[in-house]
Amino acid sequence: MNDEPGAVLFRYAEIDWDKPLETSSPGAAPPEELVREAERLGARRKRLARGEGGFFMNRSVLPPGYAIPPHSHDHSEMLVVLAGGCVVEGGAEAGTELRADDSIVIRANEHYGLRCGDDGMEFLTIRTGEASTDPTS
Fold first, then answer.
1. How confident is the model at residue 129 (pLDDT cuts 50, 70, 90)?
2. 74-107 b/e with 16+ CB inside 10 Å = b?
3. Is residue 38 very low, low, confident or very high in pLDDT (cuts 50, 70, 90)?
4. C-alpha–C-alpha distance, residues 3 and 75, integer Å
5. What is the pLDDT of residue 19?
6. Cβ atoms of 41 and 90 closer than 8 Å
């Protein structure tokens, strides 16, 4: 994390796509078999902000019909849909459809999943903490 004063610039084109099994904190990565299947189907993620100014942000691309199984995180997060869309599965917002330019805040420990539509989905995940994943909550 960069605690120096001033702005921190992120040049998207200069950031590599993640190696999904590499993570900066224990519990932050989903189960290995889920990661392998996501990679096979073309899912990918860039970790942009990694704690600078207290922010964590990922940009993710998911293929058509891809499902993120129900899980929860120990930090609240905001999802901002850039392209495509999904349906929220589980949790208080089950059945809610998200499209390009929609956003949703999912509070810490809320159990939810996502199922992408026919166009897949590209989205940002923004948190104020490095969240770990709990698939059983």
1. confident
2. bebbebbbeebbbbbbbeeeeeeebeeeeebebe
3. confident
4. 21
5. 67
6. no
Mean pLDDT of 97-115: 95
Place of tokens 């189960």: 31
Fold for 12-134, please state it: Jelly Rolls (2.60.120)
Could you identify the residue written with the tokens 């990694």? Answer: 50
Whole-prediction pTM value? 0.82
Residue boundaries of the structural domains of the chain: 12-134
In the three-class reduction of DSSP (H, G, I as helix; E, B as strand; rest coil), residue 100 is classed as coil
Both structure tokens of 133: 């994943």
- Please answer whether residues 116 and 62 qualify as being in contact, where contact means their C-beta atoms are separated by less than 8 angstroms: yes
> Which of 129, 137, 133, 132 lies closest to 56 in space, CA to CA?
129
